[in-house]
Design goal:
Elements: E1 3-6, E2 17-22, E3 29-30, E4 35-40, E5 45-49, E6 54-59, E7 66-67, E8 72-78, E9 98-99, H1 101-110, H2 114-120, E10 125-126, H3 128-136, H4 173-188, E11 191-199, H5 201-218, H6 225-238, E12 244-247, E13 250-253, E14 259-261, E15 263-265, E16 268-270, E17 273-274, H7 282-297, H8 303-306, E18 311-315, E19 334-338, E20 342-348, E21 351-365, H9 371-386, H10 389-393
Parallel strand pairs: 9-10, 14-18, 18-19
Antiparallel strand pairs: 1-8, 2-4, 2-7, 3-6, 4-5, 6-8, 11-21, 12-13, 14-17, 15-16, 19-21, 20-21
Helix pairs in contact: 1-3, 2-3, 6-7, 6-9
Length: 395
């Protein structure tokens, strides 16, 4: 008996999802629990697994369609035979570069051939930006002879003006959600940013002295983020209002420290949350960050990973940013921005010396956080980083 494949039960906070791409086509064999399609919500990408082994007989929903929980997606015929009227299995294709959900969608929208995709790939994987660049460099991209998914209605408009052209690509659901939340934060909060700078000489010395032993013992590299999270938690303990949120006319003080760490992916910015960061040691923090970053970039991060959070940290320095004004991740009330470490001339004990300096930025909701508290929080973070012993001793 044929088996129906339906949209999995979506989380309560998610009304619907978009079917981004099919990973199998009619006539192809599938194994139990193999991913058949990717569903994109406004937060994460979900997989649709095959409930039995067999042959994909029929696809009922084309890529790009909005679907709801329980909606019929496809039919699988059990066993190895294709039922009458079903297309024969496609011949084995040459292994193609790996594409993430966002890159797959761009490839479909631009109609890129397998040859173009393969040429754009670097290290066996083609990113979204690689494919956009490949599409811009090809005056007449060829359609694949045997597409792996049903054709998607054209989602771009190209207007040629001599040697110039324009491409219109719809926002992903995640990008739409990011845009919505950022505009909401700026329209509902009284945002203000204050700055300071920190000398990371002692942090650099500690990392250089212990990084090899740390990695050998804990199986993870000793980065900068664990120092900043520890310093931020110390500041939040001293100034609890920065760890609070606004609900109507009430201020909710959170007596726990769930720190969101911004992670950049092909689909956009995600902020997974480290729960109870105040009781985590350096190794646990670094392992948590590494695991979240990997899952986010593979599209496997869950809604639970992104939910909650009482304070956030973002590091624009990884892209070379020297200074910025981060936007608060509502309903949180503050966010700490890290930036590029740069050797600068500083006066120390009357002498001019070169020191590894970083600008810090704290954006906060001025409705409940006064400038005095914001500045004192930044000073606390600065003191903990310039004298890391404070973090261990809690002074």
């Amino acid at each position: 008996m044929n088996v129906e494949i339906r949209v999995p039960q979506l989380p309560e906070s998610v009304a619907d999802a978009t079917l981004v791409a099919w990973r199998k086509q009619p006539g192809q064999s599938v194994s139990r629990d193999e991913n058949l399609a990717d569903l994109e919500t406004d937060k994460v990408v979900l997989e649709v697994p095959a409930s039995i082994a067999g042959v994909l007989q029929e696809i009922r929903v084309t890529a790009g369609t909005s679907v709801k929980s329980g909606e019929l997606l496809a039919i699988i015929a059990p066993g190895g035979a294709v039922t009458a009227g079903t297309p024969a299995a496609a011949p084995a294709a040459t292994p193609a570069p790996k594409l993430g959900p966002a890159a797959q969608r761009v490839a479909e929208e631009l109609g890129l051939s397998g040859t173009v995709i393969a040429a754009a790939a670097r290290g066996g994987r083609a990113s979204k930006s690689d494919l956009v660049a490949a599409g811009n460099g090809s005056s007449s991209p060829a359609k694949p002879a045997a597409p792996a998914v049903p054709a998607v209605p054209a989602a771009k408009a190209v207007v040629a003006r001599g040697a110039r052209a324009e491409q219109r690509v719809p926002m992903t659901r995640l990008r739409q959600r990011i845009a919505e939340r950022l505009v909401q934060a700026q329209s509902t909060q009284a945002l203000l940013t204050t700055f300071n700078e920190v000398d990371l000489s002692h942090v650099n010395e500690l990392r250089a002295r212990y990084k090899d032993g740390f990695e050998k013992q804990h199986g993870v590299k000793l980065g900068f983020m664990s120092f900043f999270i520890k310093a931020a938690v110390e500041g939040l303990k001293r100034y609890p209002v920065l760890n609070a949120s606004v609900e109507g006319t009430d201020i909710v003080y959170h007596e726990y420290f769930d720190i969101g760490v911004a992670v950049s992916t092909e689909r956009g910015l995600m902020v997974p949350v480290l729960r109870d960061a105040d009781v985590m040691d350096f190794a646990a923090i670094e392992r948590g960050i590494a695991a979240y970053a990997q899952r986010a970039r593979e599209g496997k991060i869950s809604l639970e990973d992104l939910s909650g959070g009482t304070f956030s940290i973002t590091n624009g320095g990884t892209f070379g940013s020297l200074l910025s004004t981060p936007i608060v991740n509502a309903p949180q009330s503050a966010i700490l921005g890290m930036h590029k470490i740069q050797q600068r001339a500083m006066v120390v004990d009357g002498a001019v010396v070169a020191r590894p300096m970083m600008y810090l930025a704290l954006s906060y909701d001025h409705r409940i956080i006064d400038g005095r508290e914001a500045v004192q929080f930044l000073v606390t973070v600065k003191d903990c980083l310039e004298d890391p012993g404070r973090i261990l001793l809690g002074v």
